[in-house]
Amino acid sequence: FLGDPYYWGGRCAYNPQTVGPPHTGVDCSGLVGLAYQANGILIPRDAQEQWMKAAEVPRDQLLPGDLVFLCDPIDPNRASHVMLYVGDDLIVEGPGTGSVVRQMGLTERLKEAEGRRVVYGTYFGSE
User: Fold this and answer.
1) Which of 28, 71, 112, 127 is catalytic?
2) CB 103 within 8 A of CB 90
3) Looking at the chain, which terminus has fewer C-beta neighbours within 10 angstroms, N or C?
4) Which of 70, 74, 75 is nearest to 117 (CA)?
5) Can you tell me whether residue 122 is helix, strand or coil?
6) Bridge-partner residues for 25, per DSSP?
7) Cβ within 8 Å of residue 109, ≥6 positions away
């Protein structure tokens, strides 16, 4: 999915053969959900629901496959973005409209989100 366009509500790989508006691509929670589904794990569709069902973990205990949630700047009790932690301080995310799926450093990414509540979660070892 790296380099595929962000598409709000999207849950499939980009297909350049699609005619008309981009009906293919992924959003942040779609990307995370597809990564989990490809590994036989079903999780909720939206970032908020993914956060509510994940078990919270401290940042220093993140493992590859865990999730990093950014909360809404106005409502810190609502997750509005989710990223997939891949290890070595790296995340993969669909950052938003007009962008593409990218990999970058978690520390660097959190500088972009300064002032927002950040929560770390896992589905591994949780019910």
Assistant:
1) 28
2) yes
3) C
4) 70
5) strand
6) 12
7) 83, 91, 93
**What number of other Cβ atoms are within 10 A of residue 89's Cβ?**
14
Written as six digits, the tokens of 74 are 């106005």
Would you write out the chain's pLDDT as a tens digit for each of its 127 residues?
Answer: 898 888 887 676 666 666 666 567 889 999 999 999 999 999 999 999 999 999 999 999 999 999 999 999 999 999 999 999 999 999 999 998 889 999 999 999 999 999 999 999 999 974 4
Whether 23 is a known active-site residue: answer no
Cβ atoms 51, 69 nearer than 8 A: yes
- Choosing from 93, 108, 112, 127, the catalytic residue is 93
